[in-house]
Design a protein that fits this description.
four-stranded parallel sheet; six-stranded mixed sheet; about 20% strand
Length: about 375
């Protein structure tokens, strides 16, 4: 009887031992819609993310928000309510990212943002950006402009949060450089022509033009300016670093200069660059699945999200279990204190004052030549 009772008690104890739930990562990207050239490679990269960290399994619940802020908001709310999301990742363009950052702040769920955003305090507290800060990328462009005697700069950018952010940053950073800004033109992501804007820019004849766009629509200014005989230097932001931009712009992209994450030219990087080894591996793994000339920095943002999750999870597991508010808080705190985590798009060191966590190792300057990225420095 004693043996039977002992066996029974042991069985009860074993059955009652809790099993940790899988860590739930909610991903919403723009796999379709105007920002599909950003979101499709991000969706394709999810299969390359870690599925187990510190002995704990990770599941990814992936949604397509079709570049729509309303859909993105619905996606993450559904994931939080039905899947118990521990962390959010997304979205591809700025507008839906701003929308889901609001949900992240409201529900106190950490967010790894894949696009540049400026946020109110509550949302900022829970958001960490994978995209390089606009200030960091703009500084690289201004350095090139000054070195090449650019005195006048035209601007054409999206008429949304991304364009506004770049216009605000470049306006402030040009102050005192001797470079004057104007004319300033805008266009929508869904526009199919920028003829009127190009005519105004050509008539003003600035030494250079900065295009603040992303993906396929970023090619429109190059095409329109070339058609009207503009021969000045064209600069782009890191939002244009996509295969679709090269394809659509064609020969009109040649000579365009832009800042990008180091992964885009991993094989051309100096051997001592911290992102060279990991960036080269990601390039090989991604192209093995999707073919040559398919690499995108936007997919690389998703890959780096996996690197940050991999760094933060072991720390969070020391104090809380997945599926709880305490675990979400622990993840947020761990992300805010990561130090020198190497990704394919740079090295990350966060702090309470800095949720970008990037330095000059996170950018390189490239020139488009014959449909490819040529490393400058």
């Amino acid at each position: 009887m004693k043996t039977i009772l002992a066996a029974g008690v042991t069985g009860v104890l074993l059955t009652a031992t809790p099993t940790l739930a899988d860590i739930a990562v909610c991903v919403t990207v723009s796999a379709t819609g105007p920002a599909a050239s950003l979101g499709a490679p991000q969706q394709a990269t999810v299969s390359l993310l870690p599925t187990e960290v510190a002995g704990q399994k990770i599941k990814y619940i992936t949604f397509d928000d079709a570049s729509d802020p309303t859909v993105a908001t619905r996606n993450v709310r559904k994931c939080i309510e039905e899947q118990g999301a521990d962390i959010l990742v997304g979205s591809s363009p700025t507008p839906p990212t701003i929308a889901i950052a609001g949900v992240a702040g409201e529900t106190e769920t950490p967010l790894l943002a894949l696009s540049p955003v400026t946020l109110p305090e509550k949302a900022e507290h829970w958001t960490f950006r994978l995209s390089q800060p606009v200030q960091l990328m703009a500084a690289a462009l201004i350095e090139h402009m000054k070195a090449n005697d650019v005195k006048t700069l035209g601007f054409i950018g999206y008429s949304d949060g991304y364009g506004e952010l770049w216009l605000d940053v470049i306006t402030r950073m040009l102050d005192g450089t001797g470079i004057s800004l104007g004319p300033v033109e805008r266009y929508a992501r869904t526009d199919t022509s920028v003829t009127g804007q190009a005519l105004k820019l050509v008539a003003a004849a600035p030494d250079a033009v900065l295009v603040a766009g992303s993906g396929t629509p970023a090619a429109l200014p190059n095409l329109a300016l070339a058609e009207r005989g503009y021969t000045g230097q064209i600069y782009h932001t890191h939002g244009s670093a996509s295969v679709d931009f090269l394809r659509v712009a064609g020969a009109t992209a040649d000579g365009t200069i832009l800042p990008v994450g180091p992964v885009m030219v991993a094989a051309q990087l100096p051997d001592d660059h911290p992102s060279k080894t990991l960036g080269t591996k990601y390039t090989v793994d991604y192209t093995a699945q999707h073919g040559e000339n398919t690499l995108s920095p936007f997919g690389a943002y998703m890959f780096d999200a996996g690197q940050l999750i991999q760094a933060a999870v072991p720390v969070a597991l020391k104090t809380a279990s997945p599926g709880t508010h305490d675990f979400r808080m622990a993840l947020r705190n761990a992300l805010e204190n990561i130090n020198n985590v190497v990704g394919v798009n740079g090295t990350y060191s966060m702090s309470p004052e800095d949720h970008d966590g990037r330095d000059q190792r996170s950018r390189v300057l490239v020139k488009v030549q014959d449909g490819a990225w040529e490393y400058l420095h």
